[in-house]
Amino acid sequence: MKKSLKLLFTAVMAFSLLLTAACSESASNEDGPIKIGLLASTTGPLETYGQQTIRGFELGLMYATNGTMEVNGRKIEVIIEDTETKKEVANIKATKLLEEDKVDFLVGATSSGDTLAVLGLAKEYETIMIVEPAVADSITGSEWNKYIFRTGRNSSQDAIAGAVAIAGKGVKIATLAPDYAFGRDGVAAFKEAAEKLGANVVLEEYADPAATDFTANLQKVLDSNPDYLFVIWAGANSPWNQIADMKLQEKGIKISTGAPNIAALATMGNLVGMEGFTVYHHTLPNNEVNDWLVAEHKKKFDGEVPDLFTPGGMSAAIAIVEALKKSEGSTDADKLISIMEGMSFETPKGTMTFRADDHQALQTLYGIKLENVEGYDYPVPVLRKELSAEETAPPIRNK
Question: Which residues form the Leucine-binding protein domain (predicted)?
Fold first, then answer.
């Protein structure tokens, strides 16, 4: 009898100690620093985009916390990991952030391929992931889970904006895109949007993402005899110089695309007059958040203006801080999900709203025309029409 009581007492004490430790750890997690793991390509072909996201994210935290870098008395720590634009590396780095660093949020990644490799980990570790700037539709579509939110626009939002710029009844369009999720999802979404407007996509041409010679690809475009070539591209190895060298426009093919980052715009001198769309150029949004971003970016980075993906990084940071303010600093994932579904917040691109159905941020895009503007040494995207969040709302694809 005494032995049984002793064993029972020992078991109760052990359970009590475990419960105390668990409660203590929970309290510590809610009182300690808020850790954010940021996955970005800081080397490799998408390095420029990764650096823009990081700059924007850091400035966004400063803006949203009024310079304190804390929410509800909890300091914010950011741990940056380079994915090298390799899916297997992205998975390893994300696992490290979740297992060793025990981050409360994941943010990233630059590449759609890297991001798709990480989505399942967010679910496994029950950790909210803010996707920025990867655009593949499948991220908030077939591969989505409830822990995924995206401040970056998706391929369908780009596609709707791109189609509105050029598509119409009987218009023949060829597409050129990199052969991976970003390119294929982008073309699929563009084709759907363009055909709804009466256009005919006569060629879908995919190039090696690391290609430097696009001769064979562009010859296929010439052979298909389209009215327009719609280009989807990301990375420093852009096809613009060869498009000019092969004189596609002189041969009657108009070029259209999403106006890229400033370095790529500098290679597009022969495309002045092109009509298309853009995600962002620092001259386009007219709001206080963008004014702050431009001014602070110039101050911090020797007069440089924010580039294509800088406002996206800022938007991701603002979204996290706004959600934490509403949760009073709690990082409980289920609590945050209920707060973030349908949440609106102010960004450099105006108001964004996380759609409750798929957590995709609805946002403004810009119909533009490339023009020579005094004071700029590259063709500038000049606003033709601001495309509202309602106009560019993409189909819900996660059902």
Answer: 33-370
**Residue range 156-278+366-387, CATH number:** 3.40.50.2300
Q: Are strands 350-354 and 361-362 parallel, antiparallel or unpaired?
A: antiparallel
Strand partners for 200: 172
CATH number for the domain whose boundaries are 32-153+284-363: 3.40.50.2300
Query: What is the Cα–Cα distance from 17 to 106, expressed in whole angstroms?
Result: 32
The residue written with tokens 């007219």 in the block is: 286
The rounded distance, in Å, linking the Cα atoms of 58 and 56 is 6
Helices (H) and strands (E) in the chain, counts: 13, 16
In sequence order, which residues have a C-beta less than 8 Å from that of residue 26 and are 6 or more positions away?
none
For the chain, which residues make up each domain, given as ranges? 32-153+284-363, 156-278+366-387
Relative to beta strand 380-387, strand 365-371 is antiparallel
Quick: pLDDT tens for 318-353: 999 999 999 999 999 999 999 999 999 999 999 999
Cβ count within 10 A of residue 350: 16
pLDDT at 234: 82
CA dihedral of residues 37, 43, 46, 49 (deg, nearest 10): 60
Give 211's Cβ-side CA count (13 Å radius). Answer: 21
Per the listing, tokens 């630059």 go with: 110
How far apart are alpha carbons 320 and 322 in whole angstroms? 6
Instruction: List the one residue out of 364, 324, 317, 362 whose CA is nearest residue 344.
Output: 362
Tokens of 165: 């710029």
Amino acid at 275: E
pLDDT single digits (tens) 166-221: 999 999 999 999 999 889 989 999 999 999 999 999 999 999 999 999 999 999 99
